[in-house]
Design brief:
This protein is α/β, with parallel strands linked by helices. Helix content is about 20%, strand content about 15%. It has a single domain, classed as Aldolase class I (TIM Barrel), CATH 3.20.20. The protein has four helices and five strands, in the order βαβαβαβαβ. The protein starts with 6 loop residues before the first strand and ends in a 29-residue tail after the last strand. About 15% of the residues are buried.
């Protein structure tokens, strides 16, 4: 399959409010953009932005887990992304991995955006036989 070049924008942990989301949607919908634009909002905004942005702007997930389903709290599978109509995913983002204390592995030249397909779970960049990622313990603020 030939490579498809596009402009991708990773929102990281932004926007931080509904008002900011509305502003981003307005700006993107009114912008004169390259025909191949993909944006990667936080997971909480994936489906709302997919519905609110004009159809020539595609949506990418910021991460996914290699298993197709199971008891993996907070994770999203490639199959779920395909079912939701999310065609791309960013895998192995180095800043997140470093923050979580995970090993940094080299990316193939086309990384970090990957096409989200159910078979992507079987063809991840994770070395054969290695353990799935482990999250570092997080400290949580006490509830008032």
């Amino acid at each position: 399959m030939a490579r498809k070049f596009f402009v991708g924008g990773n929102f990281k942990m932004n926007p931080t409010s509904q008002a900011q989301k509305k502003t981003i949607v307005k700006v993107l919908n009114e912008a004169d953009l390259d025909p191949n634009v993909v944006v990667a909002p936080p997971s909480i905004y994936l489906l709302p932005l997919k519905d609110l942005l004009r159809k020539d702007i595609q949506i990418a997930a910021q991460n996914c887990y290699f298993k197709p389903s199971g008891a993996f709290t907070g994770e999203t599978s490639p199959a779920q992304l395909v079912d939701a109509g999310i065609p791309y995913v960013i895998l192995g983002e180095s800043l997140s991995k470093a923050e979580l204390g995970l090993p940094l592995t080299p990316h193939p030249p086309s990384a970090p955006f990957h096409q989200a397909t159910p078979s992507a779970a079987r063809s991840s960049t994770r070395p054969q036989g290695s353990s799935p990622r482990r999250r570092a313990p997080r400290s949580r603020p006490a509830c008032a």
